[in-house]
Design a protein that fits this description.
By secondary structure, the chain is α/β, with parallel strands linked by helices. The chain is built from 17 helices and nine strands. The strands form two sheets. The protein has a six-stranded mixed beta sheet, with helices on both faces. A three-stranded antiparallel beta sheet has the order 7-9-8. The structure holds guanosine-5'-diphosphate and magnesium ion. The site of guanosine-5'-diphosphate has 20 residues, from helix 1.
Length: 451
């Protein structure tokens, strides 16, 4: 099976090289610059499935002067010849070696390819030069699929009308910065409709789908491990000790753990969110204090449940042993600034010690926010350039993965498994093994919810 060959063509700066990078999953391919004529030669790269080459993509220089080429074709080639013959006459001419060297490279490549992806900057008005470009390209008599880039900032209606008048009825949209998996799948599906043989694009779609699912599974497991780590975390203090330092320490440890997990998620999706993955501000919407009850409210997490945890509500810490002593309560009252529910009614178990856990509401919040981050990484987020980034400021929090006081069994179990938390053991690997199965199950429970 020969790989399918696709010429990526279009005007300079429409994002051809960027499109190739994304389709190839290779952020190092070619050179991307916001200036004219960065790509001067045709560059090829192949998408493989294992060792089987599927599609070879050819990055071409921008068609700078399609109008000039069209003038040449109309004055120097016989109108009776068909398009390909006229293009061939052009390619054999002196003009193709001199004035129109760049343009000739593009046309030569297209003649040798199975089809073209014609990249359009959707923000651009339809200028005569673009029409000329399409006329010249159409004479190569290859299937052409228009691909709109900068979609979020442009309106494609006028373009679509113009394209339809040129018998180009199928087009695709693709924002290389705001990667969207479904757009990519549609692109390959659309392309398949234009080709005499659909096997390869369909194979590629399967490959991509498989890879995407693997990545999704890895991401969920990463989140599950993080949640188990936080849920199993516990600290013991004596009733006589002031709890404040321990509480603050626990919250810090969990904040840090969350940041690590977020960085790892970003790392996993770096191909798809290339620009975003390199910037700190991308995580900003996900870096608000996870122990801020105001933030919990936005997620619809109620903090009034659980009388035993009452003293610690709002701190994100749960006292497992019901022995919240008066002393402990008073001290916490100080931290809470007087918002202290019901402390005097809670009995002391006389153990003299307290085991502190991260509150289920906090765990629930962390789960919901992690899933929001994953959703943002898997799609949408309109272009890094806008500084909206992933976690679009307009994005409302998702639904909760579970009712906040009803943690899934794996997380409940984690509370009695001290070894499951690297924060307890200080050893990431030891705990990873012990909790792997639980993480796999929990990962299944983490369902992406649409708002
Ligand atoms: N916002 C945004 N910028 C893009 C997108 N695609 C490309 N760019 C930027 O547009 C410029 C030109 O891209 P490039 O791939 O070199 O275009 P080419 O000349 O057609 O190969 C670069 O600065 C890219 O970072 C996109 O989908 N959205
Ligand atoms: Mg380029």
């Amino acid at each position: 099976m020969n790989p399918l060959s696709l010429a990526v063509v279009g005007h300079t700066n429409t994002g051809k090289t960027s499109l190739l990078r994304t389709l190839l999953r290779d952020e190092g391919f070619g050179e991307v610059k916001n200036q004219a004529a960065t790509t001067r030669h045709v560059e090829a790269a192949t998408i493989h499935d294992g060792s089987t080459p599927l599609i070879t993509l050819y990055d071409t220089p921008g068609l700078e002067d399609a109008g000039g080429v069209l003038d040449w074709l109309e004055t120097q080639s016989a109108p009776r010849l068909d398009g390909i013959e006229r293009i061939e006459a052009f390619l054999a001419s002196v003009a193709a070696k001199q004035t129109f060297e760049q343009e000739a490279k593009v046309l030569r490549q297209l003649l040798q390819s199975d089809a073209a992806l014609y990249v359009i900057d959707a923000r651009e008005p339809i200028l005569p030069k673009y029409k000329d470009e399409l006329t010249v390209l159409s004479w190569c008599a290859k299937p052409i699929m228009p691909v709109f880039n900068f979609l979020s900032q442009g309106d494609t209606q006028a373009w679509q009308t113009m394209l339809a008048r040129r018998s180009l009825h199928v087009s695709s949209g693709f924002d290389t910065v705001a990667f969207d998996f479904d757009s990519e799948m549609r692109l390959w599906a659309n392309l398949a409709t234009m080709l005499p043989e659909r096997t390869i694009p369909e194979l590629l779609m399967n490959v991509r789908q498989r890879d995407w699912q693997v990545l999704d599974g890895e991401a969920r497991r990463l989140i599950a491990h993080f949640l188990l780590d936080a849920a199993a975390y516990q600290q013991e203090i004596s009733n006589d000790d002031p709890p404040e330092p321990t509480l603050l320490h626990m919250r810090d440890a969990v904040r840090q753990l969350e940041r690590q997990m977020q960085q790892q998620l970003l790392q996993q999706y770096r191909f798809y969110q290339e620009t975003v993955a390199q910037t700190d501000w991308a995580l900003k919407p996900f870096s608000q204090d996870p122990f801020d009850p105001e933030l919990w409210k936005e997620y619809g997490i109620r903090t009034t449940s659980g009388a035993a945890a009452g003293a610690l509500i709002g701190l994100g810490i749960d006292a497992a042993a019901l022995g919240t002593s008066l002393g402990l309560g008073t001290a916490i009252g100080g931290i809470l600034g007087g918002v202290l529910p019901n402390i005097h009614s809670i009995s002391n178990t006389l153990t003299g010690r307290q085991v502190l856990h991260i509150d289920p509401a906090a765990i629930t919040f962390l789960a919901a926010r992690s899933m929001d981050l994953l959703a943002a990484l898997q799609s949408r987020g309109h272009a890094a350039q806008h500084r909206i980034g992933i976690g679009n400021a307009n994005t409302r929090p998702s639904h909760l993965p579970w009712t906040s006081n009803k943690l899934p069994p794996e997380l409940q179990k984690a509370r009695s498994q001290t070894k499951w938390s690297s924060l307890n053991t200080g050893n990431e690997e030891a705990s990873r093994n012990a909790r792997r199965e639980a993480a796999n199950r929990l990962a299944q429970d983490l369902i992406l919810q649409e708002t």
